[in-house]
Specification:
The structure is a homodimer. The model of chain A has no long low-confidence stretch (mean pLDDT 96). The longest helix of chain A is centred in the last third of the chain and has 26 residues. Chain A has 14 helices and 26 strands. Chain A is 34% helix and 28% strand. The first copy, chain A, folds into 3 domains: 274 residues, BirA Bifunctional Protein, domain 2; 94 residues, Anticodon-binding domain (Rossmann fold); 80 residues, Translation Initiation Factor IF3 (2-Layer Sandwich). By secondary structure, the first copy, chain A, is of the alpha+beta class. At the A-B interface, β2, α2, β3, β4 and α3 of A face β2, α2, β3, β4 and α3 of B. β5 of chain A pairs antiparallel with β5 of chain B, so a sheet runs across the interface.
């Protein structure tokens, strides 16, 4: 089975698609641009969602639900927002179908034309701030810390499963505050939550930073982000947190009376992560045998395979082990299929990324042991039956840590400081030994003169973009790699998804 | 505060809307037909969702996600389905906006017209069965037990918060089976889950039954339902489970090879409950002081109010009680607002339906006790500080049971067997002492001749419809109340939401 997927180095894009398909994560749909998230893929998203939801609630956020549709005129209310989002979107113009008088099927009833077209939300700032106007009167109504789990649509025809689809699932937080400082603190609090989630749950190290003006969210004063490096040397934006200033409050006339009895516009943030994270998770850890999942997000953490096939004795031992594992909160399945051979099962469980496999055979049982295989390194060991649950719990922790360390090491090895445009170009354009064919060049730390013009020129010449100005960038006098103009700190470049 | 809501008997519809507004459950939105579910309302839906999701997973179901959009032609593929669902729906005809060349704002780009219009899903049978065609080849691929949590749109202009809105949230299960019998068993298994959920979690007794042909889901061979009685004597359909036969398999050409190596069409079910259940929950239990929630679905089960205001001593006791309650899995909040008086807080917590309120004052503390008020009966008692968590846990169970018993008693008192059309009409049309002004008449058990014609005639004359043929209806020779024709069992009539 493992032979059926393309090698990473040969064709990274095809390798990715092969995994999505063979691990049964997603499927194309009849609607161009939209994917079907299959149960195996959705279970990963559910684990992500549950964990993020817990983190949001622990920091005082609550969930709500706002309409799918946005009146067309709303998009125009915030000057920059309209430029960013009133482009490729799904437009609802009619509200009724009727039988085709000329034949078969149904047609759109021309009499059902809407007075104002509705846009399927590409993001919800406008409809939410329209609601906030009646929810907020006084500083006592603030802060509002609201999140929404929803589907959004941004028309896209070049689909890449999970990474870019017309419809995707996400969470979008929309908070309202009495002061600039509070809103800025919230923006950064969320960035920390996203960072913790990416590193501790996804086992993906990320760089926290600020977007340049050119890459900023349409309608934000400042966009913060976390950026991760994939195995093909390209960057993935894994989450954004926007400080919106008073822009949407002004556009939708949301004022409050402060504690000095003065009227002021409300301060805002918005932030989101999406099913794109599932794509990032796949690309960060997986290998040529299939999906590799960090234990903390794996829908099934352990699979038990009877060797060579199910028997009452093995079933009894498996039941005991499963009970002991479940008592520790570990998810486990027993593969009791009696048609397939162990070798086939091993390959299948590897393809699907189950972190730990226990093999139980009569010979091992006589020795009081079971075989333990870990997915990340593919190492096999024997563990004594006594205390096997403790052994597995520790192993799952080790795997989680190992995946993070491995990804961190990879990032270190593929982050380069450069001081000339020739070097920059060489790194972005030169294939790297042992790496995927379409090697992106990794992260490049370089000086930039701070202008959008230079940023766009570098993008035009190399396809690399400024991913962010890292929050921890040190002050350092330097010269822009393209123009030679002075620069005060290095920024992070990469080709990006 | 309680004075601000209308009495149930005076104007039941207004009373309902007052509760939705004053308990902060939902709000109107700028999009006609769509509502905003506010955090208090959404938290109830989240509890419902989590519990149902657990019950689905315990019976082997998994979640997935299918596209929001359905190609228009798909709706026509199943002959009956198209009649039921290709009516009032949101139709996407274009995929781009552009700046208005004549002035301000944005307009729909006429060049972005879609070749085939897309319908925002009113239900997902068609798009899902189109996907199943490639997922199912052999009996080994069956059963497929898939559920989806999603938003759907059915164009509605006469909105009633939660009960009828253009967009609503729901779950829709879509299962595929190798045999008729298995599919029928699944249909009934889900009906049992819905029943258990309604009765044990919502504390709402329901009648399980089969819909008449006229009320059947468009595309189903048989629709099963649960029906609940609201306080105004009207029925609410609280969930449906459809046996779809091979209709969608035939429409989308989904065949499998059975264990005798023969090709067959796949058998199907679909089933769903929606945010309408939140409306049903409100209407079933609430009173003239506001919302009443069953403890098992209440986002906050206990509130602690310091009397007359917060103090370090009271705070310390409250902390201990909160810890003890949380250790038992009970959700609790401490109302530490020092601006509002206890009387105001009591009314507010009553309005929001928190099942148990603990009042802590210094005088009671000296006696080693706290005041305990239960929301359902408004009774107050004192409980010893020692063991107060056990006391509260028991009280929450009692409230849950009491709400169910009360609703069951109400249903018994308002279910009438009638044997003539005059009696039928009198019950449906006569106001009832002490009941809401627009009294619906409750459930009526009567004989019917089995024809759609008679069913529609009774509806025309009385507005009452056949809610279901109860599964436990006894065989009984009788005569149709309208036509006098023979009937073998009574069916359940009511005016319905």
């Amino acid at each position: 089975m493992a032979k059926e997927i393309t090698n990473r180095t040969e064709n990274y894009s095809q390798w990715y698609l092969d995994i999505v398909k063979k691990a049964d994560l997603a499927d194309n749909s009849a609607v161009r641009g939209c994917m079907v998230i299959k149960p195996n893929g959705y279970a990963i998203w559910e684990n992500m969602r549950d964990q993020l939801d817990r983190m949001f609630k622990e920091t005082g956020h609550v969930n709500a639900y706002f309409p799918l549709f946005i009146p067309k005129s709303f998009l125009s209310k915030e000057a920059k927002h309209v430029e960013g989002f009133a482009k490729e979107c799904a437009v609802v113009t009619h509200h009724r179908l009727m039988n085709d008088p000329n034949g078969e099927g149904v047609i759109v009833d021309p009499d059902s034309k809407l007075q104002e077209e509705l846009i399927v939300r590409p993001t919800s700032e406008t409809i939410i701030w329209d609601a906030y106007r009646s929810w907020i009167q006084s500083y006592r109504d603030l802060p509002l810390l609201i999140n929404q789990w929803a589907n959004v649509v941004r028309w896209e025809m070049r689909v890449r499963m999970f990474l870019r689809t017309a419809e995707f699932l996400w969470q979008e937080g929309h908070t309202a505050h009495a002061t600039r400082q509070e809103a800025m603190e919230e923006t950064l609090r969320i960035l920390d939550i996203y960072t913790k989630f990416a590193e501790e749950y996804m086992a993906v190290p990320v760089i926290k930073g600020i977007k340049t003006e050119n890459e900023r969210f349409a309608g934000a004063d400042e966009t913060f982000c976390i950026e991760a490096l994939m195995q093909d040397g390209k960057a993935l934006q894994a989450g954004t947190s926007h400080f919106l200033g008073q822009n949407f409050a002004k556009a939708f006339d949301v004022k409050f009376v402060n504690d000095k009895n003065e009227e002021e516009f409300v301060w805002a943030t918005s932030w989101g992560v999406s099913t794109r994270l599932v794509g990032g998770l796949i690309m960060a850890h997986s290998d040529d045998s299939g999906l590799v999942l960090p234990p903390k997000l794996a829908p099934t953490q352990v699979v038990i395979v009877p060797i060579p096939k199910p028997s009452p004795e093995i079933g009894e031992v498996a039941d005991k082990i499963m009970k002991a594992l479940r008592d520790k909160g570990i998810t486990v399945k027993y593969d009791k299929d009696d048609q397939k051979r162990p070798g086939f099962k091993f390959a299948d469980h590897e393809m699907k990324g189950i972190p730990v496999r226990l093999g139980i055979g009569m010979r091992d049982l006589e020795k009081g042991q079971v075989e333990v295989a870990r997915r990340d390194t593919k190492e096999k060991n024997f563990a004594p039956l006594d205390g096997v649950a403790d052994y597995v719990a520790q192993l799952l922790d080790d795997i989680q840590q190992n995946l993070f360390n491995r990804a961190l090491q990879f990032r270190k090895e593929n982050t380069t400081r450069v001081d000339s445009f020739d070097d920059f170009r060489a790194i972005v354009e030169t294939p790297k030994e042992g790496m995927p064919e379409a090697w992106g060049g990794g992260f490049i730390s370089a000086h930039w003169d701070g202008t959008t013009e230079t940023e766009l020129k570098i993008k035009e010449l190399t396809k690399a973009t400024i991913r962010c100005i890292p929050l921890d960038a040190e002050e350092e006098e330097g010269q822009c790699i393209l123009t030679g103009k002075p620069s005060k700190r290095r920024v992070l470049f990469a080709k990006a998804y």
